[in-house]
Design brief:
The complex is a heterodimer of chains A (119) and B (813). With 119 residues, chain A is mostly helical. Chain A has five helices and no strands. Classes of the chains: A mainly alpha (119), B alpha+beta (813).
Amino acid sequence: MKFSIALLLTFVTGLGLGTVGVLPWWSFVVAAALVGVTVQQTATKTFAAGFLGMFMAWGGLAWWIDWQNHSLLSQKIAFVLPLGGSAAALLFITGLIGGLLSGVAALCGHYARVRVQPQ
Amino acid sequence: MRLVPFLVSATLTVGLVVALDKPLGKAPALGKFFSPQIGFWQNAEPYDAIPGEELSFSSLKGNTEVFFDERLVPHVFAENEEDLYFVQGYLHARYRLFQIDLQTRAAAGRASELAGAKAINFDKEQRRLGMVFAAENALQEIEKDPLFRSIFDAYTAGVNAYIDQLTEAQLPIEYKLMQATPERWSNLRTALLLKMMAKMLSSGTENDLSNTNAKSIFLPDQLKRLYPQVPDSLLPIVPTGTAFAKPAVVPIVPVTADSLYFSHRDTIEAHSHYQPDPDNGSNNWVVAGSKTKSGAPILANDPHLELSLPSIWYEMQLTTPTSNVYGVSLPGSPMVIIGFNDSIAWGVTNSQRDVKDYFEIKFKDDTRKEYWYNGKWEPTRLRIEEIKVKDSVTVYDTVAYTIFGPVMFDGQFSNGYAKKMNLAVRWTAHDPSNEGMTFYKLNRARNYAEYEEAIRTFQSPGQNFVFASKSGDIAIWQQGRFPARWPGQGLYVMPGWDSTFAWQGYIPQLENPHSLNPERGFLQSANQRAVDSTYPYFIPGAYISARGIRIDKQLAAMNQVTPEDMMALHQDYFNTSAEDLRPVLLKNLRIDGLTDVEKNYLDQFVQWNLLASPSSIGQTVFQCFWDSLQSALYKDELTKTDPLATWPTEQTSLELLLKDSVLVFADDVRTPAIETLSDIVTLAFKRACAVLDKKAAEQKLEWSKFMSPSVYHLLKDALPAFARKGLNVGGYGNIVNAIKHSHGPSWRMVVHLTERTEAWGVYPGGQSGNPGSRFYDDYVSIWEKGAYHSLWLMRREEKNDARVKGVLQFKKS
């Protein structure tokens, strides 16, 4: 349950913050860390929820855009970048970048919380 | 207390953010670039999206509706002219922002701001050619006229209205890749765009520097034969036999012309590295009702330019209560440039006239503050050019301006040559003028008199304006401001210290070559010399003869002409040069020494149907053979100077061969033996076969595979993924369907002036500059097939027509 909540929170805040134009592209990192602080679970689960939340947010959004675009642009960009024209690789990397950043940020929050609580 | 893992994960997080936020060499910062909310994904438009919004701007006066059809062509209906050009500027920016920003920065010699240090030399050349000087002079003239001031202001406001509301996510993808941002528009940038066209079309039509080197190599008689002014086989724009009036201006030959100029045999070590393509040219023609099936005139045009994505053209309809025009516009400038309205149609080709001369300047000293002119020291005007360079320090360059214009080459700038020469440029594009006025009036012209009035003031670059009206008139004018030269003036670098060598005046506009309703019922222009030798002025230029010969002959033979005939002529692959050359080449080729493989190529050539079609191998053999022969004939002589002396034109070589008088050049001066024409032709063929063998090994013998026709993105090799390469088309620069590797018919248009105009057109690109839109390159395949779109001069009451797919409403706020 906590896992799903953390994942959902990461997903929603990650996408939401990205629509605020003045914020930098990495603002979701802060949100992911805060989710890591608030939702207590094991380190592995914290990372996994953070990772999957943003992997799905970025990867999913990119997939939705790509589907509507009939992959016109992704096929070209996958040649501009050395990906041999693979739109799938481009989608995967998109998700991976979001996921990795979010995952480590969530971990960061996780350990920060442990630190402030008297044991 | 988990300090260590906290620190590790915190470091990792911050490290990743920093790493992904930092550009990787030339590549953009990956984090931002991949973010589907602001990065490249945002440029991937929904496949079927057609705009439909309401927009309001305070500078508008009334309401404007823009109806987009299924090809994303906007049909703009404005209540007044200022709103019309505001909306045109807005649409140009919305669909072509990177293009207009890049092109005008490059025109101004500011490419280094985007491209970095590798563009510094390009920028220096642009500035030393006086591109900004030219645009400033034009703008002063334009802004003197309140009407044009308001049109340019409205256009600029429209471009900026789009730029100002752009979010980072909406930036064209090129900016994201280059980590750059667009710059706001100004009237000067519109003027710069027009000067970019002037450079493209009238800066490469002279060979003064390489001609001067040719003069150092050849004797006067040889010069005449290698560089004749009027080709024997010329079929001029103004039909042969037309009588010309006595010239109103007769320039005086300087008394020192022989000693200081014609017999002066110094070489020139200066050379522009960024010359326009010599095949920038075009075809246009018009057939009178007397020769057409319908009885209505038909006009056709196809301007040959560098083919790029996005295209240099943007198709649109511009309508107000008092005007209604359809055609292609040049993003970056208002109005329709080639098109038609309810009453007339017009098209343009390049005049190819030489309107740019070089004068040698003697500076008093290295400060370049004074130069010797008519027996005394005259002050120069020094213009300091500041060239900003991406990721590097700003470069400064000082350019001296003389009575002729900017000193392009001097001790500070020699383009790599050891010998320092001071050469000033006199170019008609530097003179104040308002070319927009011509297009404004053409967009609204209703008859021949109004067309004549519209083009009268057009100065630079010289164009052949072909015309047809519904009232049945057909006409052509070669229009521009052309210097009246004494014979030989401006072929070579001239002394810059003696005013008798300066231009003495201009050919009066009414004496420009023209023709109205000729008896034969058609007119054509295809970059050839406009007139035969009876024209009373000396008019050098970089003329191309072959296409005009073919078009003239075809049109002369046609009757009951239909628009489909004109489209077929656009696609014509017949190689008229090869038709003339083949017998003489075969006569001189010695077959006995050829290998079996070489004989096989020869068979292909002998049996070839003379069409430069995509699958033709004969065309490939011919072109390699012919290039090889021209090289074998002249290269030994032309390489005596560096940079090379001017290559004789293809037409000249062809005619020399036909007359058997090329023999004097046949001997390779570098070998002790005296070669005969047969020796050279056979040697050239064998060399060509070696090239063909290589191509055969790569499976590239078929003509379209050999030349690989392609439409590149504006950034060319930097973005091959945005290009359309290896198109299945044939043609060549000397063929009516003038497709070369990345150059050719940039817009094909046929207009039938029936009661309700019928028109067809296509360009190898698409309306949107966004590679993430299906409208980016959707016309390329249509163009490749030689097909056309039907052009819809929409009427307001047709707003519910099924072809209307989206509407943009512009309102005053």
